[in-house]
Amino acid sequence: MREIETERLILRRWSVDDIDDLFDYARNPNVGPHAGWKPHENKTESLEIMQTLFLNKDSCWAIVWKESGTVIGSIAFENDSKRPNLNCRELGYAMSEDYWGKGIMTEAAEAIIRCGFDELELDMVSIYRNPQNERSGRVIDKCGFTYEGTLRQANKIYDGSVRDVSCYSMTRAEYEKAKR
Length: 180
What we know:
Blueprint: E1 4-5, E2 9-12, H1 19-26, H2 32-35, H3 43-54, E3 60-65, E4 70-79, E5 88-95, H4 104-119, E6 124-129, H5 134-143, E7 146-156, E8 162-171, H6 172-179
Helix pairs in contact: 1-3, 4-5
């Protein structure tokens, strides 16, 4: 996994030293629930999640705001459980509420999508969202994903409730066409 630099961001590997920044945005009750995870209650919980999901993963980047050097979010590729036999990865992300509405997640997502198609040679990138998460929907639209439909009652989240899931994808051909 290489470091990726954009106009305003550095996308890099996570470090244990990022724990304060992770906890700072992950404890916010407006961040995690949109993605289906509960707000972090303390730094110990953040560290456990960091060790399990972020550290030593070749496809999970810390989103660093260049201006301050602060980690403001995460972005990652995961195996797409709905497309297990394809050369496809699922894109996921979360970001500090302080940075919402500024085009930052779109900037990060576009960089990771480029990496997925140009370097990882993926055939498809998928993304799923809570239909009520309109901000994520705007990122998905700006990045050029195609809406596939909604899986009803498809995702059980941390509090036991069940949500619908809006499904999107981008094929290599769609990516190449948009690049021109």
